[in-house]
Amino acid sequence: MSFRSPDTQRRAKAVGIIPARWSSTRFPGKPLYPIAGKVLLRRVWEQCKRAKNLDAVIVATEDMRIAEAAFNWGADVALTSTRHRSGTDRIAEVARNAKQFGFIVNIQGDEPLVDPRLIDKIVEKLREDRAIQIVTAAHRFEHPEDAQSPHQVKVIIDLAGNALYFSRAPIPYSGGAFLRHQGIYGFRRNVLVQFVEWKPTPLERAESLEQLRALENGVKVHVLITAKGSPGIDTPADAKTLGKKLARAERKIAR
Q: Which of 112, 122, 188, 250 has its CA 20 to 30 A from that of 221?
């Protein structure tokens, strides 16, 4: 893969894209579920708008209900195909047509507390190191026993902070400092477009983790280590719990 010169690379624009879909087995209509007075997707979008290194934030969706709601609160919206199997496929469709952006950050639409500073660090890492093609993040498990869950993805890294492997199994075997992978990715635009063209790989299919497709094709994935992660909203119960916490916090600020 070709790379830009350092000067051109630093001038390249960055866009945050939030993939959002209506259909969900466990939580249909999740993006527009209200949490303490604002819908989930708007809370994610507002956090992204606070990032200093993003030149634009785009909501990518196949659903007109989501598109109209996002447009009404002032978001840039891209309507995408209904055939996409993953959020990565959805943002890649947008990236193909958004050639003015050299860096693409894929931001989960169900993490209303995503840290703008993490988004900025992801863009900075891509700008400063041309050898890195994808950047993601991880943090230590607060409770090591949670690493036993296959629903919590673990990652192991080399001495330079690059991913060696992602797994649903607890890795490394001896335990200790398990790292929980966070579902945020920064891509070089050309790498993202290439990534979705590759067929699913053997380890990707074995683990049901698409990020392994990058490793199996020789792509360098750098992992930023953070102090903590941001909670995802998987069920209405998650949304109600977070809503109560946010409402209490906002009442304290108002006093």
A: 112
